[in-house]
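MODEL INPUT / OUTPUT PAIR
PAIR INDEX: 1
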Amino acid sequence: MRTAIIIVCAFLLIAKSTDAQFFSKIQLKHNFKEARRFISFKNYEEAIPKLAYLLKKDSLNANYNYLMGLCYIRIPKLKAKALPFLLLASKSVVENWQEYSFKERNAPYKVFFLLGEVNHMLYKFDQAENYFAKYLEYLKPESNEYKESKRMMDICKNAPLLINDSIEISIENLGPVINSEYDEHSPTLTSDENTLIFTSRRKGSTGGMKTDDGRYFEDIYVSKKVNDHWEIPEKISPNINTDMHEASICVSADGQELYIYKDDFGIGNIYASIKDSLGNWTKPVKLEPQISSSANETHATISADKNILIFSSDRSGGYGGKDLYMSVRLPNGEWSYAKNLGNIINTPYDEEGPFLLPDGYTLYFSSKGHHTLGGYDLFYSELKEDGIWSEPKNLGYPINSTEDDVYYHLSADEKRAYFSSIRDDSYGGKDIYVMNLLSLPERSAAVIKGKVFFEGKDSIPVKDVLIKVIDNKTGKLMGQYKPNKETGYYVMILKQNREYSIICENEQYEFEPKIFNVPQHSSLYEMEKPLILEPLGKLKSKTE
């Protein structure tokens, strides 16, 4: 009897153990499948706990370690955590890696490229170069992966030179009033830096929907600076924010025109909204096909006089990837055919985030080409008198880093740059920061604004007038401005310590030119300047 009881107990223990193993295997398969699903949707945060469960059961599995390293390297603030997992995964690699097989215990050769990425991000350029070189051993020279690895090796060789040529800066988080635990990005400001417009994925977005990776859809917010402090941001307008994605691109110097990015069923387009007489934003209108084409247009900048638009597009006929294009506003108010900025600016890689200074000829932009520290770096170029852009200059370290450095908004005097980044003091995802460019020369700009009146009629603003500004020292046309049709105000940004000629005309009259001096100050300042028009005589018609 006792023997029988022992046999029964043993049988039950074996059965229980078998059941446990069976259910454990089911759970392992389920977690693996879920991890792969989250990775396919780029929802790396959700994949990590699934992979952690797998690694707890099988810590030496190279495939699990590779996938964990892949997830960490795709989360900007957690990239460094990828290193130990990728190192372990690199001990067991195979050529025919079975990506979706639960039985796969090895890692793919690409683990060496990811190790190169992590070390590059950590500024360990020699180690990174060695890993990229190791990856080359498994690739065919004609493959895109081979070319990309060779390029990363060149970047690692070039990076120390850029770091040695560093400049002095200080960086300040705009604080919890502006930033949240979610992503904030794409800041753009009016010329006086008192109105900030930005994009956020925070909770409470219009429509409340989330993307496959678990983030809220993007909305545009606005904040005003009062007594040197930012007020609580508000959604910019129900005319602009919808249930879908909207992202801020740029705002005109006078704060009256806003350009935004919208995703139209997988195609990125640029839209414009204008403030009406009550100060409300109108429903955005898609720009003409020569700008918002069937390709992806992602970012833009508009000149201070609102007559030049430079934008990024991946349309065919360029130099590769995203290129920068320019369009000018025609007399009828429409935009001209877009012209590629050429191969001095554009490369076989991506150019993004253009920002045109108020002078109308200094262009800042981000590029993955040229000589970078890796990813996007910030460059600037100047349009010369012969119409050719100067060779782009890298702004150097630490403005540029081994991460993507893109979508900067510079102040008119080039002493401050507003941008988004993930840093140690971030409140969650991407935050908006201001960078003080301490060692760069100041442009000494001034914001000039005012209304235009006829002589003796200073109670009725003139709105249908063209204002031409000429630098008397160089004879160069600095811009052509028009008063805002709703407010009557013109806004221009000019260099300090200069004398300018102001020439005004409308469809009927030409007016007495004005000489205008912009005094020298120690920093950017704003000056109110009403223009009084004295008619010289009627303009001749085109038929006369």
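PAIR INDEX: 2
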Amino acid sequence: MENRKIYILMVLASICWAGAFIAGKYTVPYIPVFTLTFLRFLFAVIPMYIVMRISNHSYRLKRDHLKTFIATGIIGMVGYHILFFSSLKYTTAINSSIIAAMNPIVTIVLAYLFLKQKLSRIQIFGVILSFVGVFLTITDADFEIIKNLTLNKGDLIMFSATVCWAIYGIISSRATQPKQNPEDNITPIALTFYSFVVCLIFLIPFVIYEKPHQILPDLTMEVWTAVLYMSIFPSVIGYFIQQLAIKEIGPGRTSVFVNLVPVFSVILAVLILNEILNPIKILTGGLIIFGVIISQRQRQA
């Protein structure tokens, strides 16, 4: 496939991922967070299985891999999404998407702290720049908020979600590294599918506690559409495009497109949710994205 077509597809994938912030913000007032997370993956797991079959996938589940799937399912799928949806009760889709853009930076920091991966000066600069951007985002660059530390708890919850996703990324990256015995390999699509399955199983008791049967029949078509959107477009279509792009243009160039997600999220939040975009948000978002780009370039080099 031509690189230009791949680039166009990755832009579309970025829009799919950006839309999850809008759909999430729209649905959280109507559906409890555990039920919402369960529904998202319930509607995603079958299409993901179909994608596996279409891809002529040959992975066979092994007992030795269960610990990995449990870790990625609970940390990446349950942990991230419960915190993500919870944050949207208290903060805007704009703020949540800007903070989520910190993911590559948080990953670099965690890899430095726990995996002893070295940081170059330019990476340290990128990390500092991005953290300044997040700090200004959650304080709205307001001196009174900074002085009194009256932070929006939704922003703090979203940062915690970003940490979960970074941990998930590190675990999944190490798990999918080629092994000496090819039969021990875990492919990215298998990791994602079984993480979905673990997530669904883990959530069952929490969903029962939330008694969804009392609210689901009264949900509007718009709410169900938003749930289905989150299930299909970010989780399946976006993922499928990303894996295709990694195969065609490599993980380095593919990862650059993730920086478009907060840009599209902000645009969609303003157009669909009528959220207010002020100069501070433009500045903080720019700081974070710039910090991510320069740190990623150094990693790829």
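PAIR 2 NOTE: The chain is about 75% helix and 0% strand.
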